[in-house]
Specification:
Membrane topology: Multi-pass membrane protein
Number of domains: 2
Number of strands: 0
Protein name: Putative MATE family efflux protein
Shape: globular
Pfam families: MatE
Keywords: Cell membrane, Membrane, Transmembrane, Transmembrane helix, Transport
Order of helices and strands: HHHHHHHHHHHHHH
Distance between the termini: 28 Å
Main location: membrane
Radius of gyration: 23 Å
Length: about 475
Amino acid sequence: MAPPAHRTATLTQGPIASTLLLFALPILASNVLQSLNASVNAIWVGHFLGESAFAATSNANLILFFLLGVVFGISMATTILVGQTTGAGDLAEAKRVVGTGTVFFVVLSLLVALGGFIGTPGLLRAMGTPIDAQPYAIAYLRIIFIALPAMYFFNFLMMTLRGAGDSRTPFVFMLVSVVLDVALNPLFIFGWGPVPRMGIAGSAVATLIAQTLALFGLIAHLYRHKHFLRIQRHEWGLLRPDPAVLRSLVLKGLPMGMQMIVISSAAIVMISLVNRHGSQTTAAYGAAAQLWTYIQMPALAIGAAVSSMVAQNVGARLWDRVTRIGRVGVGFNFLMTGTLVVLIYLFNRYALGLFLPGDGDAIAIAQHLNAIVVWSFLFFGVTFVIFGVVRATGAVMAPLVILTVSMWGVRYPFAALLEPRFGADAIWWSFPLSSLLAVTMAMTYYRYGGWRKARMLAEPAPEAAQAPTTGVGTPAMTAKVED
């Protein structure tokens, strides 16, 4: 028997625009909090512990970003599976997804944490971490690996809740985690009273404590409020992994995680081209990239919100709402990303001045490259909204192929081949060119591709009665995805 309506945050009814916006804003705020948290922690380490310590955290965070990037895809697969089954009203299947995901993330995180803790020195040497930074990096990264199970499971629960239609609770506990992390950093770095001075290891300990407390607080909240997806004592059998669900999490999640790797690896290769033009150009690119991080956040948040909302409507087989969600998402992208783009153009020099001295050559270079690149993030946003729609059905390979072609097949070759003739401008123009190509391919796939026939689970549930597709009917009790 399905729980009362107030127990679930349904995304299959009501006005699409306001529902999507209210769902996306907490996701956006969570992304901003994570970026600010990383920046504040970097300030503590860089300003008070020296360059070697800062270099250590930079190298360690590259490893952490890779590990979280891979698990991001599997977490997103959880979001979509929970969304589809919740939208279909099949809460027993939704709980089966949660049970399988719980065991998978616990086992995976413990294995990665153990292997990472043991292999930390070798990992850092393989990365070419500077000798003077290695002792700092080892002390920092080993504690981060201890914190990894809490990080993984916290991320899993947040994505599960978003799939169930709740983005506010994850934001609240993300806020708790960030506030604790920021507050505890100076305490454990410098020591106070009975707390010993721990240096760079103290920054990692702050993260460990913050993530762990936020995780247990979130779990306690879910059980205290009797969340409909909580695993109760008589349901412990659900913690035995379901092969079909586990296969879907891995086979659908890995391509989504690979998207993060494609993006990050392309960024590493592009900066190697930028470095050829000297420190001023590199500094300019670095400052512009700081702004680009925030410009892209609305599109990423809207794309994630669209995935959750579409997944529920796919589960309910409300295909007319799926189409309208995509259109509204694109509209919000133009509004939110467009506002940031206009602000950057109006206050270009001032914004870059937050990162660069106002009297150097770098700020002029940064203004020039921003003028070429920034407008293209509008189309980047459209691409990710479309990705959010199609992946919610289980179509995960097309977005990966599109990203790979646009970044590795167009952006890098264009910049590398034309750089000898046009200089750094070839690099800057490669960004809008690849963005335009990506949005063209994404729109073509959306229009003509077979994403509506994709499925998250290889063996769909038996078909139930067709729900009315008016956008206001009762969701069909099925997890099957049909065109």
